[in-house]
Amino acid sequence: xxLLDLDKITLGVSGAWAGFLRDWDRTLRAGxxxxxxxxxxxxxxxxxxxxxxxxxxxxxxxxxxxxxxTKSQIEAFQAWMISSRSASTxxxxxxxxxxxxxxxxxxxxxxxxxxMEHVKQPRTSQKLIPIVQDHDTSKILICSxxx
Length: 147
Description:
Blueprint: H1 6-9, H2 15-30, H3 35-53, H4 71-84, H5 87-107, H6 134-145
Helix pairs in contact: 2-3, 3-5, 4-5
């Protein structure tokens, strides 16, 4: 079973977004990117497209064309992603969007500058790993040597 179904991923996005996603997928396939990477990249962009498509035009409103995306729209999407999913998910989306807008600017020449240029990557909370204390290590060693 294929992971990546581009028709399913682009469902509900405007024609402009869908066209760019198809073109980018072709570029990723030509670069021999693994299907899982392509899927995650394309899904992140499609989620941004749907998020912006659900909003009306305005400062942090929506847009039906990726060439019109602004920094504030990206930041609003990122904040929404953190509140509705998690900071680590938002980091993954951030990295995928960086790649998409870099491709749109550098490879395609569709935009002069990436809206991601000054968007900071979300911070994630550090998960502390408990350290095994010396007396606990001794107990483990004693138990394992007695068996």
